[in-house]
Amino acid sequence: MSDTTPWAVLNEAHEILRTAVRGVPADAWTRPTPCTEWNVTQVLQHAAGDQLGYAAFITGGPGPEDNPFAPSGTLSGDPETILDDALRASAAAWSTVAPGTREVPVPIPPNKLTAEIGVAACALDAAVHGWDIAVATGRPSPLTPALARALMPAAEATVTDPIRQYGMYAAPHEAEEGDDEVAALLRFLGRRPGWTPA
């Protein structure tokens, strides 16, 4: 399976998540994250599980073994391998979806989206959880204004109250003066742009 797809937004988001996980220090897997209920390991489990979920809906293949919305905090293998397997499955699945496809099955309500919104929703999940892991381990935001701008339509289309109840996105925060596209996206997803580990 290839690591890249015809979808540039997904390739960029996958690389953000992959880089974030590769940069986690050995002693940082239990650190808190902007996902207040989950530590770094649990965010990884959730993010990998979501990518497998998208792949399974598109291909009919196997989904995640564990519930991505109740991550255990205990990994079954090497973190990078777990993530790489999930990203490859996601990339392979999205590589079968042509631009302009009107309905693509996805694991989030309403369970069918256009290709462009669906792939951006999958990318949004990878990118924001890459941000979670990066800032939780003391690194700068990996999000760019251009990527945030590309992801916002999918966020607005899919991050509804039912999705927020699952825990991956909290209630939105009000915009503040001086916010750029990255800050606006993070606030919409219930995150504080300046979040740092306590």
From TrEMBL:
Gene3D superfamilies xrefs: dinb family like domain
Signal peptide, first to last residue: none
InterPro entries per the UniProt record, alphabetical: CHP03086, DinB/YfiT-like, Maleyloyr_isom, MDMPI_metal-binding
Classification via SUPFAM superfamilies: DinB/YfiT-like putative metalloenzymes (SSF109854)
Domain Mycothiol-dependent maleylpyruvate isomerase metal-binding: 11-134
Protein name: Mycothiol-dependent maleylpyruvate isomerase metal-binding domain-containing protein
